[in-house]
Structures are given as structure tokens and as C-alpha cells.
Write a structure and sequence with these properties.
Elements lengths: L2 H29 L5 H19 L13 H7 L4 H46 L1 H109 L4
């Protein structure tokens, strides 16, 4: 037998033993399962998965004509004795798997019966306890709801207080802005009065300047007329 094939056989045998032990442990878990049905369904799903993996490593029913790992290895052996040994091991593992399947069915029946009995017992004798638990849960829910409402009211009160404070700050800011606008308006009115007064003074000074120019012109005209009259009398006394 080739060395690599021998290693493959040992690995395959170890995997078969591992799956077998895992299946037995899961079957025991099913026997001890206290419920509910969902837990039993989950355990059964795990058992099915392990059985599927186990079938890939051992010989299946001969009438199906399916060749898997151990059966194929048995045919590939150089020595007839090695092949027969592997075939014997394959048959042994197949019988063990059938035994596990039977134990699995029995464990399921026992677990389902126990769960059914427990549910019937709860229905017959657990009504009062159920009502007590329900009343307790209702009280707890009322207390929790009341606490939540109180907390919500306190939160709303804090928010309203913050809004009032913000409104007061806003009103104060608006009042300050209003006073500033009024002061600016008063200053603007004062500046407007000053500008009007300055304009009047400028107009008055302009009129006074025109009058002064006219008087100066008249004075110069009178001066020149007087000079001409004197010159005439001195130079032309006979005229």
C-alpha cells in the first residue's frame, strides 16, 4: 500500500470517529433538551449536518451504487488483505451510523413527549402563576411608563426654561439695538440741524459778499468821478 494512501486512510478514519462522537454528544443533548421546540429544531439541524458529513466518509447503501472515500480506498489497495480490512471497517462504521440514527429518532420522540407534557402541565397548573407574572409585568410596565413620562416632562420643562431664557436674551438684545437706533436717529437729527444752519450762514455770507462788492464798486465810481471833476476844474476852468 502506498504511503500517501495509508495517510489518507488514517485521516479519513479519524474524521469518521470525530463525527461519530459529535453525533452521540448531540443525541445526548436532545435527550436532555428541556425545550422549547425551537431549541430542539436547532439541535436536529446540527445532527443532520454531522450525518451528511459522515456519509461522505463511509460506505453508503450498496443498492445505491455510490462510492465514497473508504470504499474507493479499499478498491485502490495493492494487497487484497488491506482492501478487505478497509471494507470491514466501512461496514462497521455504516452499522454504527445506523445505530446512531435509531438513537436519534428515539431521543427525538422522548424529547418531544417531555416538551408536550411540560406544556400541558403549564396549561393545567400554570394559569395562576401566569396571571401573577402578567400582573407583575403590567405593574412593572406601568412604573416604567410613568418614569418615562416623568423624565419626558422634565426634559420638556428644561427645554421650555432654555427657550424662555433665550427669549429674554433676544428681547434684551432687541431693546439694546432699539436704544442704539434711537440714539443714532437723534444724532442724525442734530447733524441735520447743524447742516441746515451752516447752509443758512453760507447763503448769508454769500449775499453779504455781493453787497460788499457792490458798495466797493460804487465807492470806486464816486472816487473816480470826484477825481475827474477836480482835474476838469483845474485843467479846463473855462469849461
Amino acid at each position: 500500500m502506498a504511503s500517501s494512501t495509508d495517510v489518507h486512510v488514517r485521516i479519513c478514519a479519524q474524521e469518521i470517529i470525530k463525527y461519530d462522537l459529535e453525533i452521540k454528544a448531540l443525541i445526548q443533548d436532545i435527550r436532555d433538551c428541556p425545550g422549547p421546540q425551537s431549541a430542539l429544531v436547532e439541535l436536529n439541524a446540527q445532527v443532520k449536518e454531522k450525518f451528511n458529513k459522515l456519509r461522505l466518509r463511509i460506505q453508503v447503501r450498496p443498492q445505491l451504487h455510490i462510492h465514497t472515500d473508504l470504499e474507493q480506498m479499499a478498491k485502490e489497495q495493492d494487497k487484497e488483505s488491506d482492501g478487505l480490512a478497509i471494507q470491514t471497517e466501512t461496514e462497521s462504521q455504516w452499522k454504527q451510523m445506523l445505530s446512531n440514527q435509531t438513537a436519534w429518532r428515539k431521543a427525538n420522540l422522548a424529547c418531544k413527549l417531555a416538551i408536550d407534557n411540560m406544556e400541558k402541565d403549564e396549561l393545567l397548573h400554570g394559569g395562576e402563576n401566569h396571571n401573577t407574572r402578567q400582573r407583575k409585568a403590567t405593574k412593572e410596565n406601568l412604573v416604567e411608563t410613568s418614569s418615562n413620562i416623568t423624565e419626558s416632562l422634565m426634559s420638556i420643562s428644561r427645554m421650555m426654561s432654555e427657550q424662555v431664557k433665550q427669549s429674554e436674551d433676544t428681547i434684551g438684545t432687541l431693546a439694546t439695538s432699539s436704544r442704539t437706533v434711537q440714539e443714532t436717529n437723534e444724532e442724525f437729527k442734530s447733524m441735520t440741524g447743524t447742516i441746515h444752519l451752516g447752509r443758512k450762514l453760507i447763503l448769508k455770507y454769500n449775499r453779504r459778499e455781493l453787497t460788499d462788492k457792490l458798495l466797493i464798486f460804487l465807492a470806486l465810481a464816486l472816487f473816480f468821478a470826484t477825481v475827474l471833476y477836480i482835474l476838469k476844474k483845474r485843467l479846463f476852468p473855462f469849461i
